Structures are given as C-alpha cells and as structure tokens.
C-alpha cells in the first residue's frame, strides 16, 4: 500500500483527508496547506509572527495567478483564430467570482470551509467565500504538487467536467447587458452618459457614467467607449449587488 | 555538437537565432514562435484565416499570465509574513507596463521588434511596444519549453539580474504619489474629492475623483477610500501620460 493511501487510515486528519481525496481525486501530500486554504479570514489564526493572521488569503493570491495561467493556455490553444480581446473576455467569464463560487459549491469545497457562521446569517448571497477558497485550494495544490500536476487537475477535474466553454462563449455575461436586464426587470431606468473624451495621440480616452433612475452608480474609463461602458456597468453591478 | 547548436550555423535564420541566444541565454526550439512574439500589431500579417491578423498580441496574453504566476510564487515565498494586499501591490510594481518596457530594453529585446517605424516618430514615449513584446516572448518560451523552464528563465535571467525586489518594495510607485509629485513639479494643483459613499452590508463603496487645476482627470471606486484614490490617480496618470 503506497504511503499516501496509508495516511487515509492512520493520519489524525484521516476524515478530512478522505473528504479531500473525494473532492480532489488525489491524496494531499501536505495536509496543512489544504487546511489553510479552507480557512476563511473570518477564522484567521494569529500566528504571533509580525502581526500576520493566518487565513487563506495569501494562497488565494497564488491560486488566482496559477488558475489564470492555465485558463489562458487552454483558451489560447482552443481558439487559435481569436484575438486577445476575445481571450481576455472568455477568461474573465471563466474565472469571475460568481462562476468560481458556483464551481466551488459544485465540487463540494464549500462544505469544508472554516468560516465564522455569523457571516452566513447576514444573507450575503454574493459572498466570495467559496470562490476564494477554491482559488486558495489551487494555490495549495501548486505548492504541494507543482505546476504540471495543477494544470492537469484544473483541466481534467474542473474544466472538462464542470465548464462548458462553448456555452460560456455564447453566454452574454457582459456587465452592461446584465445591468440592463436587471433594470428592466426592476422597472428602473439605466442610462449611460459620456462624461468626457480626451485625445491621446491616435487614441481617445472615454469616461462614461451609468445612472440608475438618475442616480450615478458607477463610472468607467477606457480607450474604447464600449469598454468604458462595460467598466461603468461592472461598478454599478457591484454597487447593486447583482454580480452573482 | 547538439542539434540545437547546429542550427546557429545552418538555419536560414541563424543571425536571428544567435541574437536570441545572446538575449535569452538558450537556443530557441521553435523559431517561428519567437519571431511572432517580436511582431508588433503595426506589422500584423493577414493570415487569411477568418480575418485574424498575426501579431504578438495573443502571445502577450499568454505570457502576461505566465509571468504573473511566476512573480506571484516568487513573492509568496519571499515574503511569508506579508498579506495578499502587499503581494498584489508588489506584483503590480514588478509587472507594470513601464517596468516591463525598461526590462525589455535592458535585455535588448527592443532592438529585435518588428514594428512600423511611423509609430516611433510620434514621440510616443509611453509606447507599450517593448513591454508587450517582452510578455509575448515569455508566452513563446512557455509554448516552446514548458512551465518549469520558463519559471527558471524568469527567475534566473530576469528577476535575479535585473529586478531589485527589496528596492522596489521601498519605491513609492503608488500612482497617487506619482501624480502628486508630478503636479508639484509642474506647478499644478491636484485635489482628490470624495464623490460618493454607499453602504453595502459591512462595507462602504467609495467613489473618488481627482481634479488637476479644477479639471477632472480620473475617477475611481473601491471599498477602501485609499484604493479608490489610487484608482482615480492611476486613470489620471494614464490620461496625463506620466506612467513611464
């Protein structure tokens, strides 16, 4: 019996290890990394080291980067004739917080997260708790097993079974449409206003704001007017809590 | 003589291959990837495939992600007691366009880029040409040689010789200070104004704008007022062309 499997019977954490094995499809090497990845900041432990509290936020930073790389490569290879604007937009659809939250729940990571139960009572539906832990787990896998392993894990255990890239391509997850649909549903008026347009050599920088029933809910700037509107809409979606 | 070295004498691109070997420290496997990485969009070639023009933009998308991952890991390990806010800020100092532009020039990549000379005549000092090609080269190395090779390349050939992380940590590359320094130098008045403050559960969303001599040059939103100001300052630096 390989030593990894032995741990499932002998480790003091055997219950957790078995749950992780079921979720991840492999037996964690360094258990404490995964435990840390599942520790939300509301349960941070004071490490007594220079005032740093131990939670999954650092691992999330790392995992976010690794996930971004793997998804970038997958899209780069899957869409050889699409430009970088398309690739960037597809990636943001795949790794946005609400998509990661739902992936995290689908995979059963949610049930393993340590967090302060009070958080849940506030009815904060858009909590990024799940997506954060998901990214932190990716960070833990990377430190535990290296890039190639993590890349295969992301592709074979997450993207292939859980993410329909072709369907995502069709989905209008554009913030502007989301905001407009929401406004229509709620009987509110959404208006985009061009506030400013500045020349910079060949390009122009656009500043746009979006008003909901006359109240400014977000502004955006970009060298493309469409993107400036999208940025403003994203801020408004955030402010209105309609991202999920 | 290994086959790679043979190419330096027999390939039709031997001159380019030698130049690349000198810059990168290794002999490229797939030459055409590197050539594409050095092709600015102003020199895009029509591939006659679904209207896509071939330039380094797709490779830049990939390289940007790979570079982000490697830098994330380096910082994660170098600063075990720093929180993710610090790590994020350090990374943005390391991979911001002006830093990548200067790295690209230092390494000599700049001289190899194919771009429309007219671009240079516009005196566009902040051109992202060099930084873009730098990232695209990272993307090419990744496709040619894999993650571990690229990771070692970035660490040993770029970060160790060219980037003083400890010094960057001290540098105030914060956009707000940059903007304030610039204003002082130019004898202009920079004012940050809080436009709005909205409650969202426990957090508040701040909207801030920055005025230069009374003219709005950028707005920013964030759940921290400091970051909202930083965002507004970044937009203003962009608009004023003082990022480099």
CATH superfamily of the largest domain in chain A: Ribonuclease III domain
CATH topology of the largest domain in chain A: Ribonuclease iii, N-terminal Endonuclease Domain, Chain A
Gap between N and C termini of chain A = 45 Å
List the total number of helices of chain A.
12
Q: Choose one word for the global shape of chain A.
A: elongated
CATH class of the largest domain in chain A: Mainly Alpha
Mean pLDDT across all residues of chain A, rounded?
85
Give the total of beta strands of chain A: 5
User: Which residue ranges of chain A are poorly predicted, with pLDDT under 50 across at least 5 consecutive positions?
Assistant: 122-126
Described by its quaternary structure, the protein is homodimer
Percent helix among the residues of chain A?
55-70%
Q: Main beta sheet of chain A: strand number and arrangement?
A: 3 strands, antiparallel
Structural commentary:
The structure is a homodimer. Chain A is α+β, with helices and mostly antiparallel strands and about 240 residues long. Chain A has two domains: about 170 residues, Ribonuclease III domain (Ribonuclease iii, N-terminal Endonuclease Domain, Chain A), CATH 1.10.1520.10; about 70 residues, Double Stranded RNA Binding Domain, CATH 3.30.160. In chain A, about 60% of the residues lie in helices and about 15% in strands. Chain A is built from twelve helices and five strands. In chain A, strands 3-4-5 form a three-stranded antiparallel β-sheet. Chain A has a two-stranded antiparallel sheet with strand order 1-2. The longest helix of chain A is centred in the first third of the chain and has 22 residues. The termini of chain A are far apart. In chain A, about 35% of the residues are buried. At the A-B interface, helix 4, helix 5, helix 9, strand 3 and strand 5 of A face helix 4, helix 5, helix 9, strand 3 and strand 5 of B.
């Amino acid at each position: 019996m390989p030593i990894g499997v032995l741990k499932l019977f002998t480790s003091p954490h055997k219950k957790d290890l078995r749950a992780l094995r079921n979720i991840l499809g492999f037996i964690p090497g360094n258990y404490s990394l995964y435990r840390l990845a599942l520790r939300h900041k509301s349960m941070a432990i004071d490490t007594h080291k220079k005032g740093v509290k131990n939670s999954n936020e650092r691992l999330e930073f790392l995992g976010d980067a690794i996930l971004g790389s793997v998804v970038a490569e997958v899209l780069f290879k899957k869409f050889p004739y699409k430009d970088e604007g398309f690739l960037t937009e597809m990636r943001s659809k795949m790794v946005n917080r609400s998509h990661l939250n739902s992936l995290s729940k689908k995979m059963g990571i949610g049930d393993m997260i340590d967090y302060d139960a009070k958080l849940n009572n506030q009815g904060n539906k858009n909590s990024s708790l799940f997506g954060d832990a998901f990214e932190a787990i990716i960070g833990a896998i990377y430190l535990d097993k290296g890039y190639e392993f993590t890349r295969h894990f992301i592709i074979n255990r997450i993207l292939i079974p859980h993410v329909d890239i072709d369907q995502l391509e069709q989905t209008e997850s554009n913030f502007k449409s989301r905001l407009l649909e929401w406004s229509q549903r709620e009987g509110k008026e959404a208006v985009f206003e061009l506030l400013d347009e500045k020349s910079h050599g060949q390009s122009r920088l656009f500043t746009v704001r979006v008003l909901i029933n006359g109240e400014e809910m977000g502004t955006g700037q970009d060298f493309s007017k469409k993107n400036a509107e999208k940025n403003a809409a994203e801020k408004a979606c955030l402010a209105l809590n309609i991202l999920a």
